[in-house]
Amino acid sequence: MPDTNKLDNAKSMSIIVTKGSLDWAYPPFILATTAAAMDVNVTMFFTFYGLPLLKKELDMKFTSLGNPAMEMPMMGGHMAMPNLLSVMPGVGGMAGKMMKNLMAKKGVASIEELREAAVESDVRLIACQMTLDLFEYSTDDMIDGVELGGAATYIEGALKSDINLFI
Amino acid sequence: MATATLNAEGLNCPLPILRAKKMLKTLNAGDILEISATDPGSVADFSAFCNQTGNELLSSSSEGNIYKFEIKRS
């Protein structure tokens, strides 16, 4: 297999990761790891609420609040969660537990597992410096191998990429 | 030419592809990787994966709920 990572004509993809809840963490990590497996050079730029996905200890929350289209499989049917119910104390936590149980049961990878695969396959991880300052995060809290950068760093890579996604 | 096997049954997207890629890296050119999976989406995905990476999809078949693939490492 030719090592396309070393070739100039290798395909590349960039993803701006802006959301860090359990459900929104999946699309960028699934696409990044799969593209890397297909010999695509991948850059992920973590900004705003996506930045905590680079923390050593992940603690992703999930809520059905503001997501009225969400339905969970339940006893052969599907159950939606009205927003009025979602604001009740404890309902958000319960939805998160249900989602994690469902994912484990269906053989869906954990975000930790996908992130590890991304690191192993040399996906370039860039933490937004401005977000780091704004929310007072430290690189000490982040996993190893994270680069710091800003909008210009992202644009430079994105201009050379075949696919650019904002998630 | 060696043959390796990968049991990806019970795993959902994108794990069968990620595990297959990891194993292919350990093989030599011309070696065969036999994969079994239960994810129906893996049929289209292994085809796309092989088209893009240049590894040859020798066969793609199903027996009941099990999908089987043979990939020759390029």
Structure in words:
- The complex is a heterodimer of chains A (167) and B (74).
- Chain A is α/β, with parallel strands linked by helices.
- The model of chain A has no long low-confidence stretch (mean pLDDT 89).
- Chain A is 36% helix and 19% strand.
- The two termini of chain A are 31 Å apart.
- In chain A, helix 1 runs parallel beside helix 4.
- Chain A has one domain: DsrEFH-like (Hypothetical Protein Ychn, Chain: A, 3-Layer(aba) Sandwich), CATH 3.40.1260.10.
- In chain A, strand 3 and strand 4 form a beta hairpin.
- In chain A, strands 6-5-2-1-7 form a five-stranded parallel beta sheet, sandwiched between helices.
- Chain B is of the alpha+beta class.
- Chain B has one domain: Translation Initiation Factor IF3 (2-Layer Sandwich), CATH 3.30.110.
- Chain B contains two helices and four strands; from the N terminus they run βαβαββ.
- Chain B has helices at residues 15-26, 42-53, and strands spanning 3-8, 32-37, 56-63, 66-72.
- Chain B has a four-stranded mixed beta sheet with strand order 1-2-4-3, with helices on one face.
- The model of chain B has no long low-confidence stretch (mean pLDDT 95).
- The A-B interface holds A 1-2, 30, 33-34, 37-39, 106-109, 114, 117, 121 and B 10-15, 17-18, 20-21, 24-25, 29, 39, 48-49, 52-55, 73-74.
